[in-house]
Automatic annotation (TrEMBL):
It is found in: Membrane. It catalyses: 4 Fe(II)-[cytochrome c] + O2 + 8 H(+)(in) = 4 Fe(III)-[cytochrome c] + 2 H2O + 4 H(+)(out). This is C-type cytochrome. The lineage of its organism: Bacteria, Pseudomonadati, Pseudomonadota, Alphaproteobacteria, Sphingomonadales. Keywords: Copper, Electron transport, Heme, Iron, Membrane, Metal-binding, Transmembrane, Transmembrane helix, Transport. Residues 236-327 form the Cytochrome c domain. Residues 109-225 form the Cytochrome oxidase subunit II copper A binding domain. It comes from the Bacteria.
Amino acid sequence: MSKATQAGMGGGLLLLTGCAGVQSIAPSGGAHTAAFNNLFVIFLVVCGFFYLLVIGFLGAAILRRRREGDTGVPMLFRAWVALVSVSLVGLAFASWLTDRAMASYSEQGSPVRVRLTANQWWWDVTYFGASHSEDIRTANELHLPVGRPALIELKSNDVIHSFWVPNLAGKQDLIPGRTGDIALLPRKSGVFRGQCAEFCGAQHAHMALTVIVEPEAQFRAWSRRQLATARTPTTAQQLAGMAYVTTRECATCHAIAGTSASASVGPDLTHVASRSTIAAGTLPMGRGGLYAWIADPQGVKPGAHMPYIGLEARELDAVVAYLESLK
Ligand code: CUA
């Protein structure tokens, strides 16, 4: 197979992968993207119609040039201008209607309120409870109940990032020093992938956000588990790990509810093992991922603020055993 053919096939496959999946607007999972998709189809049909018409007229004009004394064009031109004008007004009206509809989705049902704070290169997530003591703090993963709006406050701790979960909503920048917001209304359960959509430094590509849309009962169960303090270690190894994590380097950046570790520089680790990824989608959650990340964070994600600690093998085993237990 020639290089050109391979490149062509690769490009075709890329286009196809853009049409479906956990990071695409096409199989819409939310009200906002559904409205946007509808508008896109209207634009595509209207513009496609005019494209074919223009090509047709062009062909007809080329044929006509061969004839003499043809005076039918001005009348046709007036009809053309009228058709284009009416269509443009129609498209503008469809845009306005879609915009109105998208603005009203945030008013349907009691909303889930979340603050998303972007950091180089991870997402700090806080759910606002009825009172401050019912707030939930997690990282790199959003759980949302299906059919209920989510009002998301957007902040940044360092540079400009951008929130984008293609299946659920369009992009919104997170600007340092400003508070932005975006509303989502998930209409389909599923796991979707969000991705920072504004170049924000070396690990911009490793700044993913997993969004899990689930039925209300499951969402409540998840909230209850997240609200609980961290599990108490059950083995001597886990206890040794807890002693290390809560008194040594880890505690200078991370918090674990129910222990003395309460720093907020890095992701909250209270239920770290309940999440599906490590380091904002960089590694899958699990024993292997935890070992790789803690032993060599700069090898996994160069430039990340998680430093190399240099744990001895016994300490590393204990720390991993403890973190693995934090479901
Ligand atoms: Cu954060 Cu790109």
